[in-house]
Amino acid sequence: MLVVRAIQADDLDALYVMATQVGSGMTTLKPDMKMMGDRLDIAVASFAETIAPEKRDYMFVMEDTDTGRLAGVCAIKGAVGLNEPFYNYRIGTLVHSSREIDVFTRMETLYLSNDLTGSTELCSLFLHPDYRTGNNGKLLSKSRFLFIAQFPHLFTEKLIAEMRGYQEENGRSPFYEGLGRHFFKMDFDHVDALTAVGKKSFIAELMPRQPLYVAYLPDDAQEVIGKVHTSTAPARRLLEQEGLYFEGYVDIFDAGPVLQARVSELRAMRDSVLAQVGAAAVPDAACATLPEPEPGPEPVLVSNTALHDFRMILSQTAPVNGAVALSAAEQDALRCADGDAVRTLSLNSRKYPHV
Amino acid sequence: MLVVRAIQADDLDALYVMATQVGSGMTTLKPDMKMMGDRLDIAVASFAETIAPEKRDYMFVMEDTDTGRLAGVCAIKGAVGLNEPFYNYRIGTLVHSSREIDVFTRMETLYLSNDLTGSTELCSLFLHPDYRTGNNGKLLSKSRFLFIAQFPHLFTEKLIAEMRGYQEENGRSPFYEGLGRHFFKMDFDHVDALTAVGKKSFIAELMPRQPLYVAYLPDDAQEVIGKVHTSTAPARRLLEQEGLYFEGYVDIFDAGPVLQARVSELRAMRDSVLAQVGAAAVPDAACATLPEPEPGPEPVLVSNTALHDFRMILSQTAPVNGAVALSAAEQDALRCADGDAVRTLSLNSRKYPHV
Amino acid sequence: MYVVRPVELADIDALEALAAVPMPGVHTLPKTREKILAMIEGSIASFAAQVDIASEESYLLVLENLTDHSIAGTAAIFAAAGSNGTYFSFRNDVIQQVSRDLNISHSVHALTLCSELTGYSQLSSFYVGEREQGSAEAALLSRARLMFAVLAPHRFSDRFFVPLAGVTDTNSGSPFWDALGRKFFQMDFLDAERVIGGARNRTLIVELMPHYPVYVPLLPGDAQAAMGQIHPSGELAFNLLTAEGFEADDYIDIFDGGPILQAHKNSLRTFTGALQRRATVALDARDRGREPPVRYAISSGTEHNFRAVIADCAALEAQVTVALPAEVLGTLNIADGDTVICVRL
Amino acid sequence: MYVVRPVELADIDALEALAAVPMPGVHTLPKTREKILAMIEGSIASFAAQVDIASEESYLLVLENLTDHSIAGTAAIFAAAGSNGTYFSFRNDVIQQVSRDLNISHSVHALTLCSELTGYSQLSSFYVGEREQGSAEAALLSRARLMFAVLAPHRFSDRFFVPLAGVTDTNSGSPFWDALGRKFFQMDFLDAERVIGGARNRTLIVELMPHYPVYVPLLPGDAQAAMGQIHPSGELAFNLLTAEGFEADDYIDIFDGGPILQAHKNSLRTFTGALQRRATVALDARDRGREPPVRYAISSGTEHNFRAVIADCAALEAQVTVALPAEVLGTLNIADGDTVICVRL
């Protein structure tokens, strides 16, 4: 069985093994024992609540309980941009209009901003290629929403996720070539690497400060603003299903979109429910099901409610009238027992049933 | 009974009478026969769908059917800023940080923007003092959400409402005195009057173009950014209950907040349901009610589904299993009959029942 | 012999003929007889006016060939640019970019819409006929405007500028306009110039032109290349003005990117080198042959009788008088003993 | 008699004593012996260097009283400001605001962080003792820097600037800083100057100072009043420099709002009025009594032997030589027939 759980101090070696298998696309999980160890320390302290909420970095690993192997990792950063400025371009609108000669021009503009400073960030998602089947990707990505729904008080109201921006097949970023290169005078990969290791003061030093009209950029750069890398499109869809939206913030280098949500408006906040482990108390089959009965079994995310040892699985057992009949193996994976509270959320979102 | 309905061409005289009773606070409903007639023409054409969606201005009146008297008015503008630039300040964040000397300064900034260009606007709400009792205010304000839920395709995804900004009891606007006056060199009332009559080119000519740090403003100006006029606080709460949020846009003169929502995220979109006029088909009292039975009768907004003759009332009859048993008088007010579809929405929002 | 003198009503036919010669750019003579007449009348009124502070006056000088009394050129000076509003231009800023961490250092140019030239005195409408191109008379005509300013400084600003027409392509399009103004005006270069009437002080500029600096590296190559480039027809003026002490590079035109030359009067040779001397009648034109003669622009020294000519005479630095042939005094409309302004050409 | 000459190692004690005199602002002498020594060595190396293009050279001149060989003042000039980075200042822009609809017209000042003074030559560290305040020797000391630039133009930029200390309140606070820099640096004026070491070219300025123009009307009254105001101790320097041709108003210091005077060399009296003459020994100091004598600053004419003194002599405009007492030639370390640079004081 696959369990997504809070990372533990002794996961370091297994994490390192997995990081060596990550390609170059993931800048936040480099196979560097020192960096990983530091980050793991913060994660452990986060679940133990021994550091301030805005400094926390909740890391989750997906473990294959049959083999003990780590299959994936993901994280939630308590707040971004409080140590180093967190830059984005915000897309705005300026209208240039003259009634005298009847001209009305609506222009898109890019503003260099630190508006997202302090937001909670979804990040560092990685699933080992061996496990890229079925619902595993969804399970891993969405585990974070169940965690947030269980502990909303730990997070700021604003949630964000940065998406990798569009690149051509040869790795060329049309947005970077059309804008950043003129100011940084170096290759995109170099810039990318600098920011990955936290060297960001050059952004303040070199980035143009004044608002830019998008129309000044070459066409191919204009076209990719807010567009994700082909390989990132599925991840974007998953997040959008959970209630994240593109609200006009993009990466300053590759113009990849930042998805955003209010925590209180997340599907997980609206639709997840607490249930008691055990058989349903009122087995009234006629009307005890959810308003719209599903045709087949609907997979359900189920988590325990413990912060320091948060664990989550995917179950085929839906809650019925506030109770969920988990199997012994499932209870074991969640480290819970009959009568304990668990949080459940259907894996897939449904459209409003009432319209 | 009070009915909120699409305005009709022959409402002009009654509307004028009501406008003469409006105080100075409402700039969009001046007792000017020419201006009102022009606006009414557009409203009638809007409901008749004879002009393009972005030019429409759906006006609704609240009629006391007992006397035929108009008790209030409200409107939805299809899109703002397409004839004249629509200006706001957007509040942003800039971080100034130097690792070298360990300084981290987070500053709020004001950007002059036309970002909300093209948004659908809720506006022109006025309820005659004689009718300011009970749920009348809610009925009038919220009627627009039911209209939008019934005809979402007529609107852009972004919905906004401008709120009157904070003023001291003597009418002084601390924000205007701290900012605008330096550039406009005239009294707030004068500026307000100019914008009301559509003279807005002076904004482009005189307003400072560059982003401003909020910290430059006097304290009393800083404090009122995004704060509503005392008399507007109840209206703000009503809109927030329906899913509008303050997202950092304020008026350029008085810094009153603009509330915003995605149409698809409105409570009315999520929670309103279609029902058939008539008695409930399956009167199974044991489990046919909504999941959480209400202690008392919950007032329900009910509208017909006709665009050109949209009508809405407040009823005490909740829909049961897709049917709503409206009284003859209610059916009459809505101009519908048994078997017709109506849209219903509980007057008051409820918190998520599942958490 | 040529004289530079204020325009007169009788010059209208000659000016109309000159205006018919195709010239690029917008800082040239008006094209219709009606507008030319207005310009002449404005100039006559300006010369006649009692001026306390530079305002809407515009002075138009003509170069007259005294042999046949033909008009060989025109040159104007406006007392205060944008006097009905604001004179807009792009300031060419240089932003130094230095990153210590990355050991990078370079500079980026940015164009900022600015109104700094408002109130400067503006030189304009410089034109000389084919025959006088490159001649000393062309230099006299250009400089005579500044000599008048030396004579009547209260009529002008302490700073002067001259916009010169920018480059256009074969279809009279402007690569600079296409990269910038077109995006906001949504029309062709010539249409825009027509709509705005060649003015640079209109409200619609504030309404339509970009409010934030334009980073030059983001402009297409041909637009960058056009920045500060003069139309070939402006080369004579450009050379005369830079020799005079005007500087390019700081400002360019908001429409076509043509250069705007500007200077404080203290940097202009006419101001720093102007000598006020008493004119005397030269008894014998040959008796000063001991030193090689120097070519001077000489203008009459009162503001209500302004005329300028070229004369060769001995270096004047150490003299208190300037000896001129009687004919020159006649052309200048002055008498023996009157004051003149002299500047080495 | 006084002489202005390059600083020498032997001057260190005298300079240390001068540096102990409390002076406001940051453009003064360093305070520690170690730093003073570095400055002296830097100056000696700069004078000795073969320079093709202005770079990190800094030249320090001293005013020596030849009676007792005491040091009465110092004055420095840096070849290129911000040469290790960017020299930041606030440019004082004027924005013309015109609304045709409302018939409103006024101007708004805005301060823009800019790096335009980078690469200008910077005058600095001007100080004279109590006794020489307001004397011709003070003027000589200030001007000698520019005379050296006349002599060795390749060592300097074509443009020069001088930051002068701004006003502080009774607690050594700066009202301008409190309204602006403090909001970003979150510290007191003196702490900030200490942290940054008086420099204006550090990366942390880009990181911390505002990137958008500061509209002056939004600043509190005392901060507005402090803009461009000099600390009382800077009045002498200010008067000397404006008489020289420097202009205030365009730039102010980013920390205390003090004025930054600047000029193109063509606008400076030392450059426009410098005369190169051959020095001769005056046989009889009284034989030129026919004309009233003129007071000149006279410097030796080679860049590796720079010295300057004051001397009275007949007007030199029409002369090719300047007759000086043998004692003056000795002080300038030159011989009969050598070239000198002369500027009216």
TrEMBL record, chains A, B:
Coiled-coil intervals: none
Gene Ontology BP terms: L-arginine catabolic process
Native organism: Duganella phyllosphaerae
Protein name, entry field: Arginine N-succinyltransferase
Entry keyword set: Acyltransferase, Arginine metabolism, Transferase
UniProt cross-references to Pfam families, sorted A to Z: AstA
Any GO MF annotation of the entry: arginine N-succinyltransferase activity
EC number of the protein: 2.3.1.109
TrEMBL record, chains C, D:
InterPro entries documented for this protein: Acyl_CoA_acyltransferase (IPR016181), Arg_succinylTrfase_AstA/AruG (IPR007041)
Gene Ontology molecular function terms on file: arginine N-succinyltransferase activity
EC number(s) stated in the UniProt entry for this protein: 2.3.1.109
Pfam families the UniProt entry points to: AstA
Keywords: Acyltransferase, Arginine metabolism, Transferase
GO biological process: L-arginine catabolic process
Membrane spanning residue stretches: none
Alphabetical list of PANTHER family matching this protein: ARGININE N-SUCCINYLTRANSFERASE (PTHR30420:SF1), N-SUCCINYLARGININE DIHYDROLASE (PTHR30420)
Name of the protein: Arginine N-succinyltransferase subunit alpha
Organism: Duganella phyllosphaerae
